[in-house]
Amino acid sequence: MTAQEQTGRGIGPEYLLAGRYRLRSKIGDGGMGAVWLARDTLLSRDVAVKQVTSTEGLDTETAEEVRERTLREGRNAAKLTHPHSIAMYDVAIESGEPWLVMEYFPARSLAQAMNLADTLPPLEVAQIGAQIAAALTEAHAAGIVHRDIKPGNILIADRGKSLGTVKISDFGIARAKSDVSDTQDEVITGTPAYFAPEVARGDDPTEASDVFSLGSTLYTVIEGQPPFGIDSDAIALLHRVAKAEIYRPTKSGPLTDVLLQLLEPDPTRRPTMAQARDALAAAATGGGTIDQLIDAPVYSSEGAVPAWAHRTTQLADPHRRNRLTGSTVTGLPAVQQNTPLRNVPSPMDMFSWPPRMPTGPADASTRDKVVAWAPLAMTGMVAVIVLAALIVVILVFTA
């Protein structure tokens, strides 16, 4: 008896999907279904297949909406062929249910990386932001609004030849301008902590709201929490978002101006995604262009893929989070509108691009040299103090 006969209609390892995709193991789970690692037996390659939550037990109308949403995700993702976007290969039909067949990208999400690093340096964040903005620029050009940009939907390859490469994923609630509205349009979808203010107020998501959500995501990985803070009360959080009550950034340094432009409360004054891409690329490369970053891994200031991106670096307890303190600022203004995006200072002006590779022990010896010279420096300071005291005494007695 085969494994498939043993499992019957159940889904599990060794199940042959649509007569072609052999399931291996579950690699992700969520409210909209599960993601499996599978083997494409026709092309002999690994793929990721997304199993949408079963429509069994749903009424006919709701089940059809779930199926249509899945097909819409497949259609939208299939329009994109960008190096920094997860590729869509196929929509497989199994027992009348659609499964999405995608590029298998061994990675950890930016949200998982934050559990390890807490916050990331502006240089690394600028690279990530520029690459994701490049993929989203192509999506916008194709008439697709992502609508759910957040750290959990940005993936960083954590092994192999792709180590450090960044990709945007999950176009599950993305909408193309050509899509026909459905009955769910009046429901706010997405993640409130990364909403644009106008979306929290009930407006339809647009390309401009994607720009704001990207800014919120980059802010979060730099500052350690979303710009509107963390609140278990989703309604209270939505009210803060609607009023643009964000915490003033404190760790973004010279990247602050770019972030504030992306987080401009007025959508008509925000940069386009292409402008955001160029500004972030210039900040990441010290004035260079996005061409220097496309299909390249993220580099630290030392010229290597950061430790947090490596699979061998174990994730820490996800519950250990430091909360940003300080008062909120309602309607925090953007930077001066007459400041060209390309003139925003680089967060790492002292580094060339690509970052220089470490030179070995010479770099590591700087701290040792400082420690070695510390006693001599202390002796010199004491001598100066004693000499000053002697001069004071002499002046007192000779007066």
UniProtKB/TrEMBL annotation:
Cited Pfam families: Pkinase
Transmembrane stretches, start-end: 373-397
Keywords of this entry: ATP-binding, Kinase, Membrane, Nucleotide-binding, Serine/threonine-protein kinase, Transferase, Transmembrane, Transmembrane helix
Domain Protein kinase per the UniProt entry, residue ranges: 21-280
Enzyme class, UniProt record, top EC level: transferase
Positions that bind ATP: K50
SUPFAM superfamilies noted in UniProt: Protein kinase-like (PK-like)
GO molecular function, one term: protein serine/threonine kinase activity
PANTHER family in alphabetical order: MITOGEN-ACTIVATED PROTEIN KINASE KINASE KINASE 20-RELATED (PTHR43289), SERINE_THREONINE-PROTEIN KINASE NEKL-3 (PTHR43289:SF6)
Protein name: non-specific serine/threonine protein kinase
Provenance organism: Rhodococcus erythropolis
High-level lineage: Bacteria, Bacillati, Actinomycetota, Actinomycetes, Mycobacteriales
